[in-house]
Amino acid sequence: MKLDSENFPLRPAWTEIDLGKLRRNLQLIRSDLPRGVKLLAVVKDEAYGHGALDVARVAVEEGAWGFCLSTLEEAMLLREGGITAPLLLLGERQEAELEWCVAHHLTVCVNELHTVRRLAKIAAAFGKQVPVHVKIHTGMSRYGVRWEEALPLIETIVAEKSLLLEGVMTHFSQSDEAEKNFANLQFARFSEVLRAMEQKGISVKLRHTCNSGGFLDLPQAHLDMVRVGILLYGVFPSQVCRKIEGIEPVMSVKAKIAAIQKLKPGEVVGYGMHYTAPSERRIAILPIGYGDGFPRVRNEGCALIHGRRAPIIGGIAMDALMVDITDIPQAQMWDESVLMGPQGAHEITVRDIAKLKKSVTYDVLTNWRLRLRRKAVNGSTTN
Length: 383
Ligand SMILES: *Cc1c(COP(=O)(O)O)cnc(C)c1O
Fold this sequence. Notes:
The chain is α/β, with parallel strands linked by helices. It has two domains: 33-233, Alpha-Beta Barrel (TIM Barrel); 251-377, Lyase, Ornithine Decarboxylase, Chain A, domain 1. Helix content is 29%, strand content 26%. The chain has eleven helices and 21 strands. It has helices spanning 19-32, 44-49, 52-61, 72-80, 95-103, 113-125, 150-159, 181-199, 212-217, 350-357, 361-366, and strands spanning 13-18, 38-42, 66-69, 87-89, 106-109, 130-137, 145-146, 163-169, 206-210, 225-228, 251-256, 259-263, 268-269, 275-276, 281-286, 302-305, 308-313, 321-324, 336-343, 346-348, 373-377. Strands 1, 11, 12, 15, 16, 17, 18, 19, 20 and 21 form a ten-stranded mixed β-sheet that branches. The chain has an eight-stranded parallel β-barrel with strand order 2-3-4-5-6-8-9-10, surrounded by five helices. The chain has a two-stranded antiparallel sheet with strand order 13-14. Strand 5 (106-109), helix 6 and strand 6 (130-137) form a beta-alpha-beta unit. Helix 1 crosses helix 3 (52-61). The structure holds pyridoxal-5'-phosphate (PLP). Pyridoxal-5'-phosphate is lined by residues 42, 44, 90, 171, 211-213, 227-231, 237.
């Protein structure tokens, strides 16, 4: 029996990816975008843990122009999965990667002279004219050529016959907070570069600056295309950014009750004995733990069972956590519980888990371990 066969029994703990909600989010984002602004769906890190191929297939059907990825492997997996849309690799490429990129029609960001020259040579050897994007650092001090030094690099690219300057881009350090001064400064620096290009008669098809926060809150910076990541997955980049009605989280984390114990007053629970029953208690054991990416909490957080909150008691283990179900008498073995996501009238949000983890929503989505297998639901992808 193959692990990936339909009959292979799913472990009683899993992540559920609702492709119907993903589709709806894409539709809402597209209809919120001004006509003519393209959508580049950011699917790096397995589409923030949702499964890049499934997400890309839905996004292609919903009109995404192309995809952003971080690594060559990520891009190759989409190509092997049959995705033919443009794939833009963020960050910097090592020399050894460039030939692969040209051979598989992957679009790279070129941010320094050496890469421009190497890529131009390889493209010429393939007899191709290869599209490139230039990343302009306008204040984030991460990847990209410094805004004041961008024009000479751009002129060099334009002069290379085997390269086509398809895009220029920048990235905001802070686009989703109420305070927009730094984002505005970054955009002004980017606009300066665009003006200087214009004066030299250099045209470019795709000018793009916005991540989810910029898409929501900096309409003046939409230009030709936006690079939307976390919002596709139904999570707003901050609590103060503009909200789009109807956007819903795509990922849930679920587990089935794998044991039930009765506690007498004074009995203790779990490693380190961090919980002592104050009275008779009924508890459920959920077969999921920090080895699956759940934050290593003790006596904090909850699971949803039969639409009610069951508080986590004791310290969570690698493979198990315990919840108090005294007030949920109908709970039985193998009933479904929700660790992240909605159930009935309640919801445990990605942000709730981020608080337990003392981290951010991006970290929570991407760090569920793969031993929690992904179960795609409401999907009508072709495969
Ligand atoms: C990750 C990333 C994005 C997407 O950011 P979100 O906040 O998830 O929308 C956009 N642009 C670049 C350069 C990125 O690295």
